[in-house]
């Protein structure tokens, strides 16, 4: 939850409690807080082992940094190649347009910071899907994005 501060331009993010009783899927993938400042965005995500995984996708307009706070995350690239297995204090940087997906392989929830940067001209974050949505993603409701074109798939295969 973002709140404006009395000093111009300063925004404060307060952690939001995660209520899984009203929506059981919320505990599988949730964001206790998100903060935006100009071109930067920071979110703390909680991902459960069962149901929090995502599909191979890319963001052509966004650079991302992921930093593990608690638990372990595995990041994958094209053809499900393991890129990194990360623990607390470790992270990965994903350049614009590079396809990836990740999961939590531990029983405890994964807590991970997601820091993004995008050009100020980009109003909406675009998502390009290189694989179908997982069943858990579908269960969380309508999903954003579009399917990758053949040209995008060919270019990604060369990365």
What does this protein look like?
The chain is mainly beta. It has a single domain, classed as Sandwich (Jelly Rolls). Helix content is 8%, strand content 40%. The chain contains 2 helices and 13 strands; from the N terminus they run E-E-E-E-E-E-E-E-E-E-E-E-H-E-H. The strands form 4 sheets. The chain has a 5-stranded antiparallel sheet, with no helix packed on it. A 3-stranded mixed sheet has the order 5-12-13, with no helix packed on it. A 3-stranded antiparallel sheet has the order 8-7-10, with no helix packed on it. Strand 1 (2-4) and strand 2 (11-13) form a beta hairpin. The longest helix has 8 residues, at 150-157. The chain is globular and about 50 Å long. The termini are far apart.
What attributes does this structure have?
single chain, 159 residues, mainly beta, Jelly Rolls, five-stranded antiparallel β-sheet, three-stranded mixed β-sheet, 2 helices, globular
């Amino acid at each position: 939850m973002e709140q404006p501060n009395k000093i111009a331009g300063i925004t404060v993010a307060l952690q939001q409690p995660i209520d899984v009783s009203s929506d059981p899927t919320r505990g599988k993938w949730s964001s206790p807080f998100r903060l935006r400042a100009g071109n930067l965005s920071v979110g703390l995500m909680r991902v459960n082992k069962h149901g929090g995984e995502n599909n191979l996708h890319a963001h052509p307009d966004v650079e991302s940094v992921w930093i593990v706070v608690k638990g372990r995350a595995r990041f994958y690239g094209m053809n499900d190649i393991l890129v990194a297995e990360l623990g607390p204090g470790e992270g990965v940087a994903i350049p614009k347009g590079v396809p990836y997906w990740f999961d939590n392989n531990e029983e405890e929830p994964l807590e991970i910071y997601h820091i993004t940067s995008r050009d100020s001209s980009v109003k909406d974050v675009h998502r390009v899907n290189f694989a179908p949505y997982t069943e858990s993603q579908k269960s969380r409701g309508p999903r954003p994005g579009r399917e990758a074109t053949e040209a995008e798939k060919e270019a990604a295969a060369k990365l």
